[in-house]
């Protein structure tokens, strides 16, 4: 390191640096910053000379994180492993924002070839993602319902679930111009009510007979986005045990108190009492068949208008999540 500092002070050109560091003039020089021992080993095996001073300006090739490269002072014969401003296209956030900005400049719509993407650090985009997720799940429920009907499956979603999902998807194909005279209806087109979501969030798309448990609350979701540790069930249980030790006089809830608590919770959330599944045979008759016809019609209209992509029957569909930490620089 001392010889490198001396060379830095006295050398004016790469040839001077090579002479001061006993490097043959015909040998190429490289710098590797940020680790990458395999890269260093491969370069040495190819006969390159390593400059161990990561801040040195004397090199033919530098392999380092983008933040460690001074693009403004590179010489014409020097090569680095990052393009200047590469974050604009090599990070999820950068690529997403630039594709959106291209829409007014060309006829290509990014939504036609690029997965929906959201920057979860942006509160507005986080809200857009939450809303889009709810609309997507409503559509997935309807598609799975039609598959169950057509395949003559034994069970499918209940009429309450299907009707709620249908009402939500109907908003996607409703022309706002048709209801502009009614501001309340117009505003409702871009929302899913808390009561509607309290029902649909319990629906399991993989098995209609099962009820989804353990949904994240708003605080835990915020911690996930901010990369904070979210307490697991075992951690919560351990914390509760510690509290019980500190409060010796605290006792477990009695059976009657637990019953009252569940009754109160069910009263606050009527959707918890609604069935999530029912036999396919229950959709026989004039009214159920009319609902099936409405579902088919709204799905066909959604496909033709391309307002909402056909959703996967998985929980999340074709969605990409972006955060700044996901886009951290590396040496590749």
Automatic annotation (TrEMBL):
Domain of life: Eukaryota
Composition bias, Basic and acidic residues: 234-250
Signal sequence annotation: none
Location of region: Disordered: 227-282, 300-332
UniProt keyword annotations, A-Z: ATP-binding, Ligase, Nucleotide-binding
InterPro entries in UniProt: TTLL_monoglycylase
Protein name: Tubulin glycylase 3D
Species in which this protein is naturally found: Durusdinium trenchii
Lineage of producing organism: Eukaryota, Sar, Alveolata, Dinophyceae, Suessiales
């Amino acid at each position: 390191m001392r010889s490198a500092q001396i060379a830095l002070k006295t050398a004016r050109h790469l040839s001077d640096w090579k002479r001061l560091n006993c490097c043959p003039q015909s040998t190429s020089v490289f710098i590797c910053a940020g680790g990458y021992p395999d890269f260093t080993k491969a370069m040495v095996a190819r006969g390159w000379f390593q400059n161990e001073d990561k801040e040195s300006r004397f090199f033919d090739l530098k392999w380092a994180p983008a933040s460690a490269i001074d693009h403004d002072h590179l010489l014409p014969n020097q090569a680095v492993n990052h393009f200047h401003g590469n974050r604009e296209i090599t990070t999820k956030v950068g690529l997403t924002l630039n594709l959106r900005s291209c829409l007014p400049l060309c006829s290509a719509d990014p939504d036609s070839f690029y997965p929906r993407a959201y920057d979860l650090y942006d509160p507005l985009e986080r809200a857009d993602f939450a809303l889009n997720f709810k609309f997507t799940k409503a559509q997935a429920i309807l598609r799975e319902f039609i598959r169950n009907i057509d395949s003559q499956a034994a069970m499918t979603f209940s009429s309450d679930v299907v009707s709620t999902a249908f009402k939500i998807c109907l908003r996607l194909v409703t022309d706002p111009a048709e209801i502009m005279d009614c501001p309340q209806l117009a505003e409702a087109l871009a929302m899913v009510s808390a009561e509607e979501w309290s029902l649909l969030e319990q629906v399991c798309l993989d098995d209609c007979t099962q009820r989804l448990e353990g949904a994240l609350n708003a605080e835990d979701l915020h911690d996930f986005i901010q990369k904070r540790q979210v307490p697991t069930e075992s951690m919560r249980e351990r914390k509760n045990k510690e509290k019980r030790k500190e409060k010796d006089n605290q006792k477990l809830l009695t059976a009657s108190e637990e019953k009252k608590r569940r009754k109160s919770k069910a009263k606050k959330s009527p959707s918890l009492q609604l069935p999530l599944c029912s036999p396919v045979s229950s959709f026989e008759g004039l009214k159920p068949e009319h609902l099936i016809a409405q579902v088919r019609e709204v799905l066909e209209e959604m496909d033709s208008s391309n307002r909402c992509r056909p959703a996967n029957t998985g929980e999340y569909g074709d969605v990409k999540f972006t955060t700044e930490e996901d886009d951290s620089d590396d040496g590749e």
